[in-house]
Automatic annotation (TrEMBL):
Catalytic activity: RX + glutathione = an S-substituted glutathione + a halide anion + H(+)
Family annotation (SUPFAM superfamilies): GST C-terminal domain-like, Thioredoxin-like
Similarity-based family: Belongs to the GST superfamily. Tau family.
Residue ranges constituting the GST C-terminal domain according to the UniProt record: 90-222
Primary localization class, coarse: cytoplasm
Name of the molecule in the record: glutathione transferase
Organism: Eruca vesicaria subsp. sativa
This protein's record includes keyword Transferase: yes
Highest taxon, organism lineage: Eukaryota
GO biological process, one term: toxin catabolic process
Amino acid sequence: MASEQVKVIGAWASPFVMRPRVALNLKSIPYEFLEETFGSKSELLLKSNPVQKKIPVLLHGDKPVCESSIIVEYIDETWSTSGPSLLPSTPYDRAIARFWASYLDEKWFRSLRSILKAEGEEEKKAAIAQVEEENSFIEKAFIDCSKGKAFFNGEHIGYLDIAFGSFLGWLRATELLSGHKLVDEAKTPSLSKWAEQFCNDPAVKPVMPDTAKLAEFAKKIFAKPPA
């Protein structure tokens, strides 16, 4: 089954689509990327994910797997003998990684988006302060999880690295548009160093969106309607 053809349905700008692509690259699993057009949903996507109708979808042979974090776990289990293990080895460490991944999706990324959606300087400042507070929590989580190594997962990129690292393109685009550095050596030195190492990894570089291109895309997404 592991040898069946692999495809990823997604879009270049989606941080959630980036997750399975990084995971597959880390496992050295060849795959075909099926690009969705922004603003529309292909027949294949609707057929593959009829419940949520959203990307990403991993097609393994004729079997679809949906939801980015679930896909990453599926990749890790299906190709367990290829490349590094993406999930921590102990039940407790796996639970902690899943907790922070959920926090990033449900709390942190929403706060980051609120910077781009802010109306006026005061609202933007409040949104930036919120993200910086949450970054301090994640900085501590990195120190605890990494145990002095380069990544959340230790010596190699893993599940939580992928969960947070997939947002780095949007973080950098937000920094560019807001004119404010959100992850820097002064406030979050561990995260700053980790982000640089993550982005420079050979499994990540080919799928990390260009900051300027993503910023232009974000302007269109978050453009204020005319009064």
